[in-house]
Amino acid sequence: MSQLAELLRSGHRPVVTAELPVIDGGGMATVRSQVAHFAPYVDGINATDNTAAHAHASNVAVAIAIRQLGVEPILQVVCRDKNRLALQADIMGAAMHDVTTVCCLTGDDVTAGDEPESRRVFDLDAPQLVRTAAGMAAGQYMSGRVIDPAPDLFIGAVENPAVPPFEQRVRRAQTKAAAGARFLQLQICYHPERLEAFTQLAQRVGLTRKTALLQSVCLTRGARGLRFMNREVPGIHIPEETLEWVDNAADPAEAAYQVTLGQARHALSLPGISGLHIADFRMDDSLGRLFTDLGLGGQEMQDVEELPANPMSSPTAGS
Amino acid sequence: MSTLLPLVEHAVKKPIWDCRMCGQCVLHSTGMTCPMTCPKQLRNGPCGGVREDGGCEVNPEMRCVWLKAQGRAEWLPRAWREEFDELRPPVDNQLWGTSSWTNLVTGRDKVTPVSWQETTPEIGDEAGKPADTQQVPGEDVPVATCQHSHHQSGSSSALPAAARPADEESPREVQTTVVGAEAEVVA
Q1: In 10 A of CB A118, how many CB atoms?
Q2: What is residue A43's three-state secondary structure?
Q3: Per-position b or e across A232-246, b if 16+ CB within 10 A of its CB
Q4: ipTM, 2 decimals?
Q5: Lowest-pLDDT choice from A295-299, B44-48, B75-79, B152-156
Q6: CA dist B135 to B44, B82, B175, Å?
Q7: Which residues does residue A157 pair with via DSSP β-bridges, in sequence order?
Q8: For the structural domain made of A3-293, what CATH number should be given?
Q9: Domain regions of chain A by residue span
Q10: CB within 8 Å: A206 and B169
Q11: How far is B42 from chain A (nearest CA, A)?
Q12: What pTM was estimated for this model as a whole?
C-alpha cells in the first residue's frame, strides 16, 4: 500500500503533495533537481499528464523517475489523450515500476493547449476512469480479463470547488468516491467562501470519512502570474480585487506569497481538509518559507518517524 | 427495420435534443439534456473547467451542458432525478448510429464493463477482492436481458449513487463495514 495512503489513514498531520513542473528537456538531471526542490517537504509528487493540453515528457516516464529518486509519485492520468486501452496500459505499466498511486482527471480540453488541432479522445470520463482503476485493483481489466496479482492501487481524483455548478460539485465528488477515489486533490480556489461551503457539505454528507481532501495552492511570482492563470487556466477564476491588491502592493512578489499563505492557512483550518497540494511557479526559497509559516515540518513532522520508512519524513523542513 | 429505425429516431431526437445517435440514450437521467453534446462528451457531470458565468470551457458562448441538465432535472419525476448522480458506464462505441430504442428493448444499452460488475470499488480491504457480493454501478439494470449479465436481481445497488446526506450508510452491507473501517482514514 502506498505511503500516502498510510499517512492519510493515520491522520497525524497535514499531508502535503506537490506538482512536479513539466519536463521538456534536460532529462533526468532536470527531474532530479526539481524533485530535490520538493523532497524535503512533501509526501508525494504528481507526475502530470500533458498539463493544460501541452505535450511534455510522459506521465508514466516521469512518475518512474520520481520513484527512482526515492519519492512517492502520484501518477496523473488524464482522459483527453488516450482511449480506455491505453489508460489501463499506462496504469499497469506504471504499477510494474511500483507507481501505484493514481490520480484520475478528465483533463483540460485540447483547445486549452498549443495544439488545438488534436483529436480529443475522452473515451472515458474521470469517474469512469476511477471505477476502471478500482476494477484493476480488484484484479480485472474492464473486459473482465484477470490481472493476477492485482496492482495494489491507491486511487484518487480531483474536483473543483470554485466553479459552477457549486451544489453539484460535492455530489460529483461523491460519485468519484463511490467509484473508488480515496483522495481528491481540489483545484486551486481563490474564493475562500466557496471552498468553505464545499468542505462543509462534504463533511455533512460523509464524503470526508472515506476520501481525503487535499487543497491545492499555487506559489506565483506576482500579479502577472496570477493574471496568466486567471486568463489561461480553465477552471481558475481570481477575483479582480485580489489581482489589484497584488498589483498595487509595494512588493508584488511578497504580496503574491501572502495570498498563497493565506489560502493555505485557511484551507488547513477547515475541518475536512487533510492537507495541501502545492504547485510552485517560483521555485525559490518560498516553499520552505511556506512550511515554516504554516508551522509544518517542525515538530509535527516528527510524528512521521513512527511510520515505515518515508524518505519525505525528515524533519528538516523549514530549516 | 434495423436500418429504418435509426433514421426515424434521429429524425425525432435530432431537432429536439441535438441527438448524436450514441445508441445508448440516458436522457431521462440527465435532465433530458444530451451529455453527448458536451464537447468532452462527459456522461458523469461537469468537468472542472466551467466558466464563472456558467459557460463551457471549450465554447464559452455555450452554457455548460451539465448546468442545463441540472436545472432541467428538477422538473423531472423523482425516479429519474435520483439517477442523476449515478455512475453511468462508458459509451459502447459499437453502438454509434444504432437505435437506442432497440438497444433499450434488448437491454444492450445497459451492458456495463465486466470488471464493473464483478469487483467492488473498495480498495486495500477485504471487500476489494473480486467479490461474491455483486456490485453493479447503476441500479436500473434490467437483469434478465443483459448480455454479459452476472447481475442478480435483488443485489442491491452497489455504487450508492452519490449518497444523499441521509443514506450515506445505507445501501450495501459490504459498504457499511468498509465505511466504518475507513472512518478514521481522514479523521
Answers
A1: 16
A2: coil
A3: ebbbbbbeeebbebb
A4: 0.88
A5: B152-156
A6: 18, 18, 10
A7: A104, A184
A8: 3.20.20.220
A9: 3-293
A10: yes
A11: 6
A12: 0.83
